[in-house]
Amino acid sequence: TVVLPGALLLLAAAPVKPAPSLGKAEAACRANETGPALLVAVTGLKDRKGLVRAELYPDNDADFLADDAALVNAGKLFRRADLELPASGPVLLCLRVPAAGRYSLSVLHDRNRNLKWDKLSDGLGFGGNPKLGWSKPSAASASVVVGVGPTRTEVVMNYLSGLKYRPLERP
How far apart are the first and last CA of the chain? Predict the structure, then answer.
């Protein structure tokens, strides 16, 4: 069979479909990572059920929390890391980035592992730990700055409590 160069271009341009694995290979940190990466320490968890998912977006309102496949298809940054919650100890995720800079970050505590946000039971957190209302925070308020090497940030989880999403109250 003969494959025409134009046919190869069409195959290469085939759109990426949404999938739980999108952005994971690009985000995977190497052992002893030295390049630009974000180390996300997750605190304030309701429990150790399920998993935590961190996602990194371009730092602008149009792209923040946009569909992962749409971002990838447009050639825009999207990184994702999932971590099964350990029974105890610190919860730390690592996301590699292409360069030092400002990015917007979201973290989901997916308590039932369905890879979707369940507003009544799952927790949410964002870079910069903005106070949450009923709409998504701005990209700027959820942003983090990543340096030329691994950069640590802490995200405090928020859960529905009464009519608001807020960190759990500790006695």
Answer: 71
The four Cα atoms 39, 16, 58, 103 give a dihedral, to 10 degrees, of 0
Query: Which tens digits make up the pLDDT trace of 97-115?
Result: 999 999 999 999 999 999 8
Longest dimension (CA), the chain: 71
Q: How far apart are alpha carbons 37 and 87 in whole angstroms?
A: 25
Instruction: Report the b/e string of 36-49 with b at 16+ CB within 10 A.
Output: bbbbbebebbeeee
Interatomic CA distance for residues 107 and 91, integer angstroms: 12
DSSP 59-119: SSTTTTT--HHHHHHTT---EEEEEEPPSSS-EEEEEE-SSSEEEEEEEEEETT-SSS--T
Q: Indicate the pTM of the whole model.
A: 0.86
CB within 8 Å of 129: residues ≥ 6 apart: 154, 155, 156
Residues 45-54, mean pLDDT to the nearest whole number = 96
d(CA 34, CA 155): 22
Pair 110, 122: CB distance under 8 Å: yes
